[in-house]
Write a structure and sequence with these properties.
Strand content: 15-25%
Order of helices and strands: HEEEHEHEHEHHHHHEHEHH
Strand order of the largest sheet: 1-2-4-3-5-6-7-8
Radius of gyration: 19 Å
CATH topology: Rossmann fold
Oligomer: single chain
Number of strands: 8
Distance between the termini: 77 Å
Number of domains: 1
Helix content: 40-55%
CATH architecture: 3-Layer(aba) Sandwich
CATH class: Alpha Beta
CATH superfamily: Alpha/Beta hydrolase fold, catalytic domain
């Protein structure tokens, strides 16, 4: 009997592995690495570029996302005036993952390497959404020589206390269990997320084609899902240390915050940030966690204001 059970479990595991490999191949063909690979500390960072001239803007995506988040939202509003760089964070999109990549300092170091390589010594406006907001803040703290201003979109900035992380990230984060669990994600993940997209945008409507245009399917590759889970699982501890440094920030900061954001608490994150550093807050009463979609032109105007002000200095 035990032999039969073991054989059955092995067969199911093999089947899941084959399915996940096929899924990974298919989704990477649909959304290939068609940007620039920038080597930073021996690891490639995948960067999408739009615009050929003007001040530099670096956009950093949030959790469960990748650089394509911005290619059809913000970049087209700005690319006739600016050079837009959109980078995949380590283990997301087509950027390489490495040991310790869940550390905000190391993620910021990868983003700094992109600017060192592609910005020709110019300072850039850094745009960060959600988790990307935490990385943007760390980049401004660690490499102020590269940053002229920050535009933060529903940023996560502080340890949020009780509540922890979701059950699926807790399962996916550990090395052994996470590897096994993540093989199952291609079977159920895409359908579940498609059905739940509206909750991230609510009360604003989710834009048509969001899942496809932002290449959300890349998340359900097992390695990508594990990277995302580890990022989120260690984020509280990382923010607990990082947030003590925010008074060091000297660059202009504009924050867009949806008043009805249910993914994170604006009062906790933006509210606490305002106590530590001067912030221009744009409160959006009818937006949730994705203000760069419904309020894309207002966000673009803020980026222009910071980028063009730096250009005239």
């Amino acid at each position: 009997m035990l032999t039969v059970i073991a054989a059955t479990v092995s067969a199911l595991g093999l089947g899941a592995c084959v399915t996940s490999m096929a899924y990974t191949s298919r989704v990477e063909q649909a959304y290939p690495a068609n940007g620039t690979l920038v080597p930073v500390d021996g690891r490639d960072v995948h960067v999408l570029k739009q615009g050929a001239a003007g001040p530099v803007v670096l956009m950093i995506h949030g959790a469960s996302a990748n650089a394509r988040e911005f290619t059809w939202t913000l970049a087209p509003r700005l690319d006739t005036q600016m050079r837009i760089l959109m980078a995949d964070r380590p283990g997301h999109g087509h950027s390489e993952r490495f040991d310790g990549a869940e550390q905000l300092g190391l993620q910021a170091r990868q983003m700094a390497g992109v600017l060192d390589a592609l910005a020709a010594g110019e300072k850039a406006v850094i745009v960060g959404h959600s988790f990307g907001g935490a990385v943007a803040l760390r980049l401004a703290l660690d490499r102020p020589d590269l940053v002229s201003g920050l535009v933060l979109l529903a940023p996560v900035t502080h340890d949020w206390g009780a509540g922890g992380t979701t059950w699926y990230n807790n399962l996916a984060a550990p090395p052994l269990l996470g590897t096994a669990f993540s093989q199952l994600l291609p079977l159920v993940g895409p359908t579940q997320v498609r059905g739940g997209i509206g909750s991230v945008f609510r009360p604003a409507p989710a834009p048509e084609g969001y899942f496809e245009n932002s290449a959300i399917g890349l998340l359900f590759r097992p390695a990508n899902f594990r990277a995302n889970a580890r990022d989120v699982k260690f984020l509280q501890d990382e923010l607990g240390a990082q947030s003590a440094r925010y008074p060091e920030l000297k660059v202009p900061i504009i924050v867009f915050s949806g008043s009805q954001d249910t993914v994170l608490s604006p009062k906790l994150h933006v509210g606490e940030l305002k106590k530590q550093v001067t912030v221009e807050l744009v409160a959006l009463p009818h937006e949730g966690h994705m203000p760069h979609h419904g309020e894309g032109e207002a966000v673009a105007d803020a980026i222009r204001r910071l980028a063009l002000a730096e250009e005239t200095r």
